[in-house]
Amino acid sequence: MAEKTNSLAQLSCPTSLPAKDTIVLGHGSGGRLSAELMRSIFLPAFENPVLARLDDQAIITVNGTRLAFTTDSFVVKPLFFPGGDIGSLAVHGTVNDLAMGGAKPLFLSAAFIIEEGLSIAVLRRVVDSLRSAARNAGVEIVTGDTKVVEKGSGDELFINTTGIGIVPDDLELSADRARPGDKVLLSGSIGEHGIAILAQREGLEFECPVESDSAPLHTLVADMLTVSREIRCMRDPTRGGVSSTLNEIAEQSRVGIQLEESSIPIREEVRGACEMLGLDPLYVANEGKLVAIVAPDAADAILETMRRHPLGGNARIIGAVFESSSPIVTIRTELGTSRIVDMLAGDQLPRIC
Amino acid sequence: MAEKTNSLAQLSCPTSLPAKDTIVLGHGSGGRLSAELMRSIFLPAFENPVLARLDDQAIITVNGTRLAFTTDSFVVKPLFFPGGDIGSLAVHGTVNDLAMGGAKPLFLSAAFIIEEGLSIAVLRRVVDSLRSAARNAGVEIVTGDTKVVEKGSGDELFINTTGIGIVPDDLELSADRARPGDKVLLSGSIGEHGIAILAQREGLEFECPVESDSAPLHTLVADMLTVSREIRCMRDPTRGGVSSTLNEIAEQSRVGIQLEESSIPIREEVRGACEMLGLDPLYVANEGKLVAIVAPDAADAILETMRRHPLGGNARIIGAVFESSSPIVTIRTELGTSRIVDMLAGDQLPRIC
Q1: pLDDT, position A347
Q2: CA B109 to chain centre
Q3: Do A109 and B350 touch (CB under 8 A)?
Q4: Using CA atoms, how far apart are residues B259 and B252, in angstroms rounded to an integer?
Q5: Of A29, A96, A195, A278, which one's alpha carbon is 20 to 30 angstroms from that of B61?
């Protein structure tokens, strides 16, 4: 795994060895370095129980109403890619972070950091896409900000979206709630967003072009919650892919998670691209998929509901939670052997979102 | 005025003539170009009544609770300056935008875009400052995000903070509520933030160094609202300074505003620096001052209250609102003549916040 990861790191961003005291691209990868930065800098500084849950969204209570609150900056490169662009991604990413907390997304802010010299036509195209994505997701952009930096001090366009949603009173989803016996559900095939970005960036051509799976997952989540409240937690496996997401859940719940390789849906083009590039699809980013940990007796009903939703047609049970003295994620390969699925170690693919 | 502005633009950022179809630094200045971008791109795209109010914060209602919601990205250069840094500024800026809507600030998100190679010690210093500022302002950082971009694709560190506050039920503050006869209050001396940044950036040395006035204004606002609800609107005159803020209010309320130059407090060092640099202090950014438009019969009581607050000791009535067929801001100079105070035309001082 480590070798595979490194080979891509070299392909996409040949950098010198990281010094321990400076920020490297891997600190933004969503993997081990990101987690270290979180633990060493951010968590101690802002110590509070809401942030310490380390979920994709904060759940806060204002006047008795439970709100989900989440922020994401988007620095994806290139701005436009097959299946989406930075505008639609900025909506989907934040809508999904709200949805993973079981929230109904309501309002977004949108803040633009623009590099001097960006074409206004490009800005307009991104803003139009952001607007369409917001409309389709039923959220309103109610406040915004624009900053401009000198040429060479940015990279075309960065967007921050921050979202507010409303969470049902009786709902408790959190990455520390996985229990032995629980099932791991995945809403569809993996790796498409990362491969689409990489292909676009590196000018790779496939017979069947891979499109990003970028999509808003909140209606899928709403359907799942209608059929059962026996969902422990949900996550959208973006940076660092399914492997990093499941490692975080294993870590926070102090459990093991065993995956079945044969159950994980991967489209043929993605599998081929990953083989060619020396990538493990478990580490490649998704922007329209979710992983859910659910109580064993609720798994089938939830799965059935997911499959009836347009974004869950290919949903599967991909594994189960087991008791473990230390947090671990393993996978039983199609050959019947088992291996450890570690957290992403370095920088796999920078600026994926 | 235009000439003065241009002379600084040349001093701080010699750029070629802006093409009409690309983004220039002035689009981020908070002046006329920013307003044009807002009107031509963002407002039409996101048309909704909340955004169209063009206030510093959105007021949204969730489950019957009125929330203020505001976002700001901070790209200030340098990261550290006399009187503050990007961390404290990121808290004060967003707290103030909430406060200007009369909200009690409660929660902030913090999202970091870090340029590869930033020293972790610098990041830690900024995060510590952000933490202290949040604690002092009584707000909690409950959610965050970190992205890393390649060296040369950013500029050390950009921070977005987005804030949520709670607004009293019976309070309506908005820039379209100024009425002829209203008084214009200013909480203290102007121009300190902009001059502190500029001095630091350009290596200018003054006998008495100018410090940024960066400060959280929400307790000052709370005091003002306790004494009277006859406040029409409040604004913190940041980018574009007092002139741009008052022009926006005049525009949205369809009124004229007349200022008295002799009433506007300006510290001697700031006045001297502005003269030396060919700047008009009315256009220089503040980060710890507010402008309030208040009903005439409430002005004295509000002023008295402001003066008892540590951040309002130098508060003044600086002008009044008058009926006008077209929105205009004028100033009666100390010589007794009158001139128009237009909106900032180009880019005065980029990356001030």
Answers
A1: 65
A2: 20
A3: no
A4: 18
A5: A96
Question: Which of B106, B121, B146 is closest, CB to CB, to A27?
Answer: B146
What is the nearest CA distance from A22 to chain B, expressed in angstroms? 4
CA quadruple B148, B151, B157, B160: dihedral sign: negative
Quote the tokens at residue B105: 């600030």
Closest alpha carbon to B247 in B349, B183, B178, B298: B178
CA–CA gap between residue A129 and residue A135 (Å, rounded): 10
pLDDT digits (tens, 9 = 90+) for A83-94: 999 999 999 999
Name residue A113's beta-bridge partners.
A147, A158
Strand B231-235 and strand B183-186: pairing?
unpaired
Q: Which residue intervals of chain B bear CATH 3.90.650.10?
A: 183-340
Per the CB < 8 A criterion, the answer to whether B149 and B102 are in contact is no
> Which of A63, A142, A150 to probe by mutation at the B interface, max B CB count within 10 Å?
A142
Tokens of B258: 């007349």
pLDDT tens digit sequence for B100-123: 999 999 999 999 999 999 999 999
Q: What type of residue sits at position B85? A: D
Cis peptide upstream of residue A78 (ω within 30 degrees of 0): yes
Q: How far apart are CA B68 and CA B213, in angstroms?
A: 24
Residue B160: phi, psi to the nearest 5?
Answer: -105, 130
pLDDT category of residue A280 using cuts at 50, 70 and 90:
very high
Q: Judge: A148–B115 Cβ closer than 8 Å, yes or no.
A: no
Q: Give chain B's count of helices (H) and strands (E).
A: 11, 14
Averaged pLDDT, A1-10? 35
- Taking an 8 Å cut-off on Cβ atoms, the answer to whether B21 and A153 are in contact is no
Amino acid at B86: I
ipTM score: 0.93
Say which CATH topology domain A53-166 has. 60s Ribosomal Protein L30; Chain: A; (3.30.1330)
pLDDT in tens, A288-298: 999 999 999 99
Is the pLDDT reported for residue A204 higher than 90?
A: no
Instruction: Give the nearest partner residue to A131 out of B46, B64, B71, using CB atoms.
Output: B46
CATH of B183-340, one of 3.90.650.10, 3.40.140.10, 1.20.190.20, 3.30.565.10: 3.90.650.10
All residues of chain A having their beta carbon less than 8 Å from the beta carbon of residue B168 are none
Q: How confident is the model at residue A203 (pLDDT cuts 50, 70, 90)?
A: confident
Q: Tokens 């008495």 identify what position?
A: B208
Min Cα–Cα distance to chain A from B108, Å:
9
In this prediction, residues A223-244 reach a mean pLDDT of: 96
Domain with CATH 3.30.1330.10 in chain A: 53-166
**DSSP letter assigned to residue B180:** T
Tell me the pLDDT tens digit for each residue of B40-62.
999 888 888 888 777 889 999 99
pLDDT on residue A128:
96
